[in-house]
Amino acid sequence: MLSVLSSRRIAVTVAGAALISMTAACGGSANAEACASATKLITDYTSSVAANVTDLEKYKAANQKLSEDLKALAGTTDGDLAAALNDFSTSMGGLKIDEKDPAAFAAALPEFTKKLTEAGAKIQTTCA
Predict the structure, then answer these.
(1) Span 28-48, mean pLDDT?
(2) Which keywords has UniProt assigned to this entry (predicted)?
(3) Are the CB atoms for 118 and 22 separated by under 8 Å?
(4) What kind and span of H or E run contains 22?
């Protein structure tokens, strides 16, 4: 079982990567409204995760919700922004946490964080 400390590390790592990747994502692009919505989704996710760092099930639910919300937002856009939002959604949806095997999750976390950061960078570029 994951310890509270491990859960907090996971939450902080993922939320931090998500928030950093979206920092300053809203620029003067034609997609400003969608970019603002994406930033709000990430901010809401970060708040939710921070409020539930000791509850693994709520953390998993927050990850799934963000994935679904980003996918829905991607459906309202097109081109590079849609692709970037879908990449971010896929990364979030791909995060699987098995509390019985924390070592496997810890081993997968660097690659997950890399994918999340890359997807966030694509959104930043598209929204700039």
Answers:
(1) 84
(2) Signal
(3) no
(4) helix 4-22
CB atoms within 10 A of CB 64: 13
pTM for the full model? 0.75
Cβ contact 124:24 at 8 Å = yes
- For 105, residues 6+ apart whose C-beta sits below 8 A from its C-beta are 2, 10, 96, 97, 98
Q: pLDDT tens digits, residue range 8-29?
A: 555 556 655 555 455 444 455 5
How does DSSP classify residue 29?
A: S
Tokens, residue 1? 């079982």
Structure tokens at 74: 């991607």
Kindly state the average pLDDT of the residues 85-100. Answer: 86
Chain-centroid distance, C-alpha 103: 21
Q: Where are the domains of the chain?
A: 4-20+29-127
Structural Rg of the chain based on CA atoms: 14
Share of the chain above pLDDT 90, in %: 20
Nearest 10 degrees: CA dihedral of 121, 11, 112, 106?
150
Residues 12 and 127: their CA atoms lie apart, in Å, by 25
